[in-house]
Amino acid sequence: MNILEICTFSAGGCGVWARVKRESLLLSKLGHDVTVFTTNREKGTWNVINERQKIGSVKVIRFPAIKLGGESFTYWNFYKEAKKLRPDLIIVHSYRHTHTLQALHLAKKIKCKIFLVTHAPFNREDSRKAYEGWIVNAYDYIVGKVTIKKFDKVLAISKWEIPYLNKLGLKKEDIVYSPNGISDEFFRKPIKEGDPRLISYTGRIAPIKNLEIVIRALALTKNKSLRFHIFGPAEPAYKKRLLSLISELELKKRVLITDKRYSTKEQIAHIDKGYLFILPSLSEGMPQVLVEALARKRVVISSNIPASKDIIKDRVNGFIFNKKDPKELANILDNITLGKDKRQISKIRQYGFERVKEFDWNTLIIKLDSLVTNK
After folding, report:
1. pLDDT given at position 312
2. Of 256, 253, 248, 198, which Cα lies nearest the Cα of 227?
3. How is 305-326 classified by DSSP, letter by letter?
4. What is the pLDDT of residues 332-344, one digit of tens each?
């Protein structure tokens, strides 16, 4: 089958691009002819990226993008190129984007099937300005309720977003739960114990990730041997803000920022260095890095957002804290690292590891292939 995947480009641990990259490669290995259309600008940094790329046998074609607002809200025109390609199926990623509506119009024109992978853009009030919230609500009411029903299938990456899709008029049979998977490398590579004094983070270094709350919590901990290593591609203005806070709180010896894009191998090595892994985000669609950290048997801590609570049950397979409360986070860090109940922590780590085996891409791709080929 000739498949076209469409999304905006990102780097680091961003779930959209990470999913498209892995999904397209695995679909091609199952015999499909897969092409990816994406932007020539990187989400967040807005850096220009090379126009063409190959991932195995998958062709990646990039298009000039005009920024319209937010981290990744853009306009880019791929219509003519897509008409030449004439795919049998379009898989378009991210609800409420201009490329999503363009893809829907294209599918109707060339009479091909189209799936929408939503990437859970709901319940993001803490990461949006008031006027952005009004625009989102207006879009859902005027455009979303009409267009979302026109997709052949809507794929939800998280269970928490399904009620929002129901409100847009989708019935249970219109929605397929299809979470972002993780590479089998996270399960396959030997697991190391990690430094009990080190808290790790991998992913984009951007305001939505709320990394400053971890830095503030670190200043409040009783365990002054704890360190925090932030690893991933950084937005320059946000990195500058974090460095200023580190200096203000006199934590230069306890907080390290490594600003770089990373491979899966490098990410695993970084996660394995620490005993603890944290994701303090203000909002997420599906927190893929949490799943990756659980697969490495880390003690995982996350903010109390719906996406994380889909995966983490507090004190069962990880720990949840109020995303705006550094004191609560500091107490959790102290209880884990200074507490005496190591057996309970060991159980939490093991349960977390067992819980995430369902997110192995080797399992998920078979289900997606069945949906694609209508088996």
Report:
1. 95
2. 198
3. -HHHHTT--BTTTBEEE-TT-H
4. 999 999 987 778 9
Structure tokens at 350: 């093991």
Domains with residue ranges and CATH for the chain:
2-181+360-373 (3.40.50.2000), 185-357 (3.40.50.2000)
Closest-CA residue to 180 (of 38, 290, 309): 290
Distance, CA of 274 to CA of 298 (rounded, Å): 8
Of 312, 283, 309, 310, nearest in space to 300 by CA = 312
Question: Could you give the CA distance from residue 224 to residue 197 in angstroms, rounded to a whole number?
Answer: 9
Helix, strand, coil percentages (3-state) for the chain, rounded to 5, are 45, 25, 30
pLDDT in tens, 318-363: 999 999 999 999 999 999 999 877 789 999 999 999 889 889 998 8
Residue ranges of alpha helices (H) inside the chain are 15-29, 79-85, 98-110, 130-139, 145-147, 162-167, 185-188, 212-220, 236-248, 264-273, 288-295, 306-309, 326-338, 342-355, 361-373
Q: Which of 256, 202, 252, 227 minimizes the C-alpha distance to 337? A: 227
Give the residue from 286, 230, 282 showing the smallest Cα distance to 259: 230
Task: Give dist(CA 34, CA 6) in Å, integer.
Answer: 11
Strands 73-75 and 33-39: unpaired
What is the C-alpha separation between 212 and 229, in angstroms, rounded? 12
CA–CA dist 283, 343 (Å, integer) = 32
Strands 227-232 and 89-93: unpaired
Say yes or no to pLDDT of 300 above 90: yes
pLDDT of residue 193: 87
What is the spatial distance between Cα 105 and Cα 87, in angstroms, rounded to a whole number?
A: 14
**How far is residue 371's CA from residue 369's CA, in Å, rounded to a whole number?**
5
Q: Residue holding tokens 């949490």? A: 290
